[in-house]
Each structure stands twice: as structure tokens, then as C-alpha cells.
Amino acid sequence: METTLWEKVCLFHGHKCPGLAIGYKVALFAKEVLEINNTIEDEDIVCLSETDACSVDAIQIILKATLGTGSMHIDYLGKHAFNIYNRKNGKKARFVFCDSTKFSNKEEKLTYILSKEPKDLFLIKETIRDFPTKARLYDAIPCAICGEQTARNALVFVNNAHICKTCQNS
């Protein structure tokens, strides 16, 4: 028996919940609106999420916009809003969850979200930023105090030495 996409998303996330369903629905909607096909490569799709909630896990699985590749960015604004960019064709949109229906429990809300068409759950707006730059790679060098390898861009230069932010703040 083949695992469904929803089951794959739930397996990755660890449980089923309304937040995950929001991410699942927005990722499917983005694929349609932004003409995203299944030949996604690293950083083809970028997501600037305005939440750090469960929804980002579904986006990582479906759109392959992951934290590890630098194509998932979190700019916490407390909104279920997702700025999604398709580098392959230049399309971009901000998807804002707009359904305010009240429910007595999470299971009821989950069932409701999964039953709705994405176009009925999200507004499509202009992105809050233009296309993000591609992920940058930095050499790592040891901190002069603790010796731990640290990305060069995350070090501060103090008294002629490169110091990591952890040591700088202690």
C-alpha cells in the first residue's frame, strides 16, 4: 500500500494537527498557483514563513524548501502567512490563512481544514520581500576563546581575535 503525501507529512512531523494541515494545504496551493512541478532542486523554491509553527514542516516536505538548504526562512510575525518563491519561473506570492471558523476541538478543526479547497482557506497577496538571495556558504574558523569552529560571518572581531557570539555574550 502506497503512503499518501499527507501520511508522509505526518510521519515527518510526528503527529496530525491543524497547523500541519495548514502547511499541507498551502504547499499544494502554491504548487498550483506558482506552477511548481516535481523536478524541484535545491533552492528552486524558497519560503519565507511568517510563523515557526507546525505548518513549516509540511512545506519542507512538499516543496523541498528546507532549513538545511537555506531555502526556508522564518521571519516570525505571528501569522499563518507564507511568502513562496519559484526561482525556476520567477513567480511568487504570499499566501495568508484567512479562515476564522471556530471549533470546539483540534480534531474538528483538522478535519475541516483537510476538507476545504485551498482557495477557500488562503488569500493570495504580494510578497513582503522580493526574491531572497541564494544561501551563502561561509568558511568556518575556530573561536579564539572556546576553539569551536564557527562560520566566519557569525564571528565578531574583538581585540584582534575572532570570537563567537556565545563567548562574546558570556
Automatic annotation (TrEMBL):
InterPro entries cross-referenced by the UniProt entry? FmdE (IPR026328), FmdEsu_dom (IPR003814), tRNA_methyltr_O (IPR053194)
Q: Which residues form the Formylmethanofuran dehydrogenase subunit E domain?
A: 12-108
Superkingdom, natural source: Bacteria
Species for this entry: Helicobacter turcicus
Instruction: Output this protein's name.
Output: Formylmethanofuran dehydrogenase subunit E domain-containing protein
